[in-house]
């Protein structure tokens, strides 16, 4: 529920609201991209803050204050009318989202340190938030004034985020490091550097679709499908984390990460090459089925490598990628959103190539095939 509030709504509700702000508030595509970038800058600022001051991730005041800040920024969006003011609010929302995400991720890793494959049940909350906020926008319809959706998103975030009040208390041991207290050897450190690079490229590529998918469909004549596709993204994301975590007990995480990145690359590029409604639906399902699954796998892989504060470091790299994503494609937006989606797909392929190199390392969490023991051996 906390991840649904912080990520599914706090961060991603902007995607289905963006087309209405363009139509009703006169927001340009470039300004829309800049507002998105401000949110991603806030996200990386929050991640860096907890990397430098990891004790904040176990602070009740920080966790609760971040939720209050997130709700306040969502409710304040209709109260201002200029792009710089919207950028400031989305920046603060990004900081709050990152803090809540890392607090939740580390509490989750502490609680499930002996059963990390169960983490997918929690990360699926991001998809739940996307599905809920997208459904609200879809049901209300494009005729509804855009400020209404920001107020509704603030209410949803407040209700879903309520468990953050007891999140720290429910963790097994707030003093315990979430992803390893000991130092990692040279091999694991090099592997973690590759994981960071691949996850950074994932942040660049996926955020292009996460920001512009609905607006791209609206601009291509598939307006009726835009918000529906976003709901599909959320619905597909809910069980995806559970499935990827389940498969990680049978297949090594580097292999799964490569597979997920390639599938996501195809999903992001599809709306850039076709306006076929069926293909767009397939794209939405594949995108939703991979983007949080990749996060689940990457955070678990970082923990396996026993790198201190790996969750905060990975979230920082991811956040940096999300900052650069809209900036990289911004020069192409005058020609529509389709070229941007193709660029996003290409970047994700590059990420898959980087992660592929992880297979050259002896992976600490690699599944061990079970062998049937003969009666003679017994």
Automatic annotation (TrEMBL):
Keywords: Membrane, Transmembrane, Transmembrane helix. One of its GO terms (molecular function) is transmembrane transporter activity. Its main location: membrane. Residues 1-363 form the Major facilitator superfamily (MFS) profile domain. The chain crosses the membrane at residues 40-58, 65-85, 91-109, 121-142, 148-168, 199-222, 228-247, 254-273, 279-299, 311-329, 341-362. It is found in: Cell membrane. It is a multi-pass membrane protein. Pfam families: MFS_4 (PF06779). One of its GO terms (cellular component) is plasma membrane. InterPro entries: MFS_4, MFS_dom, MFS_trans_sf. PANTHER family: PTHR23537, SUGAR TRANSPORTER. This is MFS transporter.
